[in-house]
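Below sits my pick:
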Amino acid sequence: MTKGLVFTIQRYSIHDGTGIRTMVFLMGCPLHCPWCSNPESQGTVQPKVWMKNKKPETLGRWMSVEEVIREVEKDEIFYRTSGGGLTLSGGEVLMQADFASELLRAAKELGISTAIETAGSLPLHQFEKVLPYADQILFDLKIMDSARALAIIGDKMSLIKTNFEAALRTKTVQLIPRVPLIPGYTVRQENLEQIRDYLKEQGIHELHILPFHQFGSQKYEDLDQAYALKNTPLLKKEDVEQIREFFEHSALNVVVSGLA
């Protein structure tokens, strides 16, 4: 029986795919983004311990596909009325590609819409395991310059582009590129231009932008880790609007996923 390491199941999400969704967060991520809002998921696929209210708490529970599906099915009425479904997130979903593919397939067999959030940061053969069972792929594009991406977050842009373009060729998938707007990192004019140019090359017409927030900052204290963006101010509404207009001038339909 395939089991996966789950650290959170979040209900009634409306920003992570179409309609009302149940989010299943999987442990494990090869990246080290300084702005990560789920730092507890970084690293290898294994449970972690952090301090909550001065007490140690173990993060991560090994669950079978059947156990997760039972939780997901509890909200089936919301999927039917809103067009929602199951979204897998993390961490990086592809770190547990075998479990993720079985979970997505089980959901689809029940008529539940499926989506994944990914940075595409593992080899193509891992990505190909989930591609047949994902109705939507919310694909993060972060730092496009190869040297900066590798140095800052551990990302390999050649790998990212290979996976992105594989998803684009998969006709059963709705591919939605997303850009987290992180001051000093992704919000650099040359980076925004590189994202724009790449999307135009690929014939993409829709882009979601996600303004920086501080929602995960407390987690770094719980993990006894330094948070590099602790004093980074949030983007102003006019700053986000300017970025939206920049992309829209290139005939992209831009969706802003909430202002913090």
